Amino acid sequence: KAGVTQTPRYLIKTRGQQVTLSCSPISGHRSVSWYQQTPGQGLQFLFEYFSETQRNKGNFPGRFSGRQFSNSRSEMNVSTLELGDSALYLCASSLVGGSSSYEQYFGPGTRLTVT
Amino acid sequence: TQLLEQSPQFLSIQEGENLTVYCNSSSVFSSLQWYRQEPGEGPVLLVTVVTGGEVKKLKRLTFQFGDARKDSSLHITAAQTGDTGLYLCAGGAAGNNRKLIWGLGTSLAVNP
User: Which of B9, B25, B73, B75 could form an S-S bond across to B62 if both were Cys, CB 3.0 to 4.6 Å?
Assistant: First the structure.
């Protein structure tokens, strides 16, 4: 079974621009979560989508948004980029129901650099 | 606010040594996962523990869930250079909108 894929792997943007990141979950996984990882803050939860609906949301400003499509693929968008948005953005998929629903299967991440 | 504290934050050892890293909280979790992350890659799930007092083994790695389901430990026997990475624990709390609570991780370096 193919793992979680994320595109692009690397991205360089300028302050003020916007960016869209894409994630394809493992086949059969209907929940997709997004995380931001930086050396100082660790893994920070952005949001989770299930059945095209945002089910959970972390403490990030409204510049960070996401969506999920009917095939469970997901995208996240960051508008008006700031230098502090430079990070590794990770997507994770999981099954729904029971303790397995907490098990996250991560993609390789997108390394975003904002200059 | 639920927190998961991991210790130590950094660990550098020689190949062949044993080590234990800890994941502690004042909150009760319905399950807890351990992940290992290598530089530039996403975390990889190692194990899930669910029952208080549960012990799981994965080759040279031994995972234990505390009796009260508030803490966990990871013990590595005879560490190898391939064990190098960031070890993360994450707790699932059923009453918390099914959010996962993440620790900041233990960065392990195993030197040849």
Answer: B75
